[in-house]
Request: fold
Amino acid sequence: MFSLSDERAIGPLRCAWGPYRHGTPAEALVRPWLVEALGLPADALPLRRDVHGRPRFDPPAADADVSWSHSGERLLVALGHGVQVGADLELLRPRPRALALAERFFVRAETQALAALPAAAQEAAFVRLWCAKEAVLKAHGRGLAFGLHRLEFALRGGDWALVACDPELGAPPDWTLHAFTPMPGYLASLAWRKLPQPP
Reply:
């Protein structure tokens, strides 16, 4: 069962995380938590998948947005109102090919920034960057298929800041990102932006 004991408010988001068993459909674990968080009857949760596979709410919860991610033996879910939200969770493990992956999928300036770091810091910085990129892309709705190279981050004060992105993603200042450690051995990133107001 998805534990509700590990829960936190981060900005406009309500987040929870708990155990995950590989092969279990994550949505089945997330649904009971969403029912409680939204105060809806279990049979009335208006959650569906769009054409790209992104979870979305229909009325009566149309102003809400949800994203979840699992890695290793943990699952993270984030729920927000009036925002688009993306969540990514990564198990911290050795990634000896981090720079090779960066060269293949990231913007050149990001790869150069990673390569300039001390060797001992490169893997952790790579994971933080990957996590941040995936969170934004999940919030956008296309995920990794949209392309990791279509948004660019730069190191600012020891962390990654969004500095450029494809116009489909909006402008960098539209986005808020938050990285945190929900439990030992894991890194999470959340990305959100306000939903456009109707004219």
About this structure: The chain has two domains: 6-85, 90-193.
